[in-house]
């Protein structure tokens, strides 16, 4: 039986994962442009297309990585869009399961606070990725501008998977928008939604060996028939 469009999309969703260790090799500019061109087809409210994307490579990535290294431990997070105030119930359960899988993959004990901190800080090293995409939206578009950017991110991630490019969407990078404004020349009215580290996966690294689960349909869908 020939592969249908639905089956292709299902395979991309099933096989996509968050890469947490990259090889140093850069993605050719032509492939990055191909990926960005695909993501540009993302739908948005009234076709506003609020996303703007800053893409780093080479020395620009290295400078941004160094800036985070100096900044993160000395400054509080001040995201443009508030991070979750709390995790409770099933959301907390899922978050903990994901965290324990991550720590287990690299041999970090639950009580080893020092190594857990080191692993968290790997976010700001971009997991050694050669590229970062920083996604911003227009301030006046508010929450729905950010939602449209989320649709763009999903298209980017699936397109990357189709091209053999690994990626890690990272809210952590959005926790320090002032740093990004300074180093990327972003105006104040552009609000930082998320960062995406991307490149080629180091498939031999154990941190890339685990996969998270998804809830059953009955856990997330309520049918109303009458």
Automatic annotation (TrEMBL):
Residue span, Nitroreductase domain: 14-200
* Superkingdom of origin: Bacteria
- What name appears for this protein in its UniProt entry? Nitroreductase
Pfam families associated with the record: Nitroreductase
| InterPro entries recorded | Nitroreductase (IPR029479), Nitroreductase-like (IPR000415), Nitroreductase/BluB (IPR050627)
Q: Which UniProt keywords apply?
A: Flavoprotein, FMN, Oxidoreductase
Q: Which SUPFAM superfamilies match?
A: FMN-dependent nitroreductase-like
Entry keyword NADP: no
GO terms (molecular function) for this protein are: oxidoreductase activity
């Amino acid at each position: 039986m020939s592969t249908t469009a639905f089956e292709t999309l299902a395979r991309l969703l099933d096989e996509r994962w968050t890469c947490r260790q990259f090889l140093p090799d850069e993605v050719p500019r032509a492939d990055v442009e191909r990926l960005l061109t695909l993501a540009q087809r993302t739908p948005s409210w009234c076709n506003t297309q609020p996303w703007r994307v800053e893409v780093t490579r080479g020395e620009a990535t290295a400078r941004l990585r160094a800036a985070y290294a100096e900044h993160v431990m000395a400054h509080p997070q001040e995201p443009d869009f508030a991070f979750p105030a709390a995790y409770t119930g099933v959301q907390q359960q899922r978050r903990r399961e994901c965290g324990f899988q991550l720590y287990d993959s690299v041999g970090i004990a639950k009580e080893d606070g020092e190594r857990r901190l080191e692993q968290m800080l790997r976010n700001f090293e971009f997991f050694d990725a050669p590229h970062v995409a920083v996604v911003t939206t227009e301030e006046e578009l508010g929450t729905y501008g950010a939602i449209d950017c989320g649709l763009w991110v999903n298209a980017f991630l699936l397109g990357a998977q189709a091209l053999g490019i690994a990626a890690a969407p990272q809210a952590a990078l959005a926790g320090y928008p002032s740093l990004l404004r300074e180093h990327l020349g972003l105006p104040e009215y552009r609000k930082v939604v998320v960062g995406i580290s991307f490149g080629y996966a180091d498939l031999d690294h154990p941190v890339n060996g685990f996969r998270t689960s998804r809830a059953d349909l009955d856990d997330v869908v309520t049918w109303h028939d009458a």
